[in-house]
Predict the 3D structure of the following.
Amino acid sequence: MTDLNLPALREAVAKEDQRMPSEIAIATAAQCWCDPRTETRVMDVELATVFAERVDAWIETARQHANNEDYYRGLLDRIGERLGPSAYVSDDGSVQDSVLRAKVPELVSALLDEVEALKARTCHNCHHYTEGIDLCSLHDAEPSVLLHLCGAWTAKEQV
């Protein structure tokens, strides 16, 4: 079996390039010479260096992917929290401690359907629900504005 000289490999890499590959990348490259299929070969420092650089690139890609996953998971969680209790209820009716991210698109879609129905209702019934104030100008309003107004209309209908 080939004797690995990691300090020599690190030193050789440092001489050739200002940016030295990470310790894990160097160790991964060096381990290739410990494989039973290659253990009889003399370690090629230049090849190990190139391999370590490629390992570092993949490590950085994986790190960025993980950061992106965390970011988008956080966005879904924040949206789910705003959607309320239904974002925590499983299909079997059990309530979970955290947002069920797979439900978020379905709940947002249902909410947008409600907003579209409310917009249609608002334009057809402007005078009835607002005592003469023309709400047709709100046709392109933010959903939160319309939903806020919807609570007032529902209260008027019940009187």
Summary: Residues 101-158 form one domain. The first helix runs from residue 6 to 16. The chain has six helices and no strands.
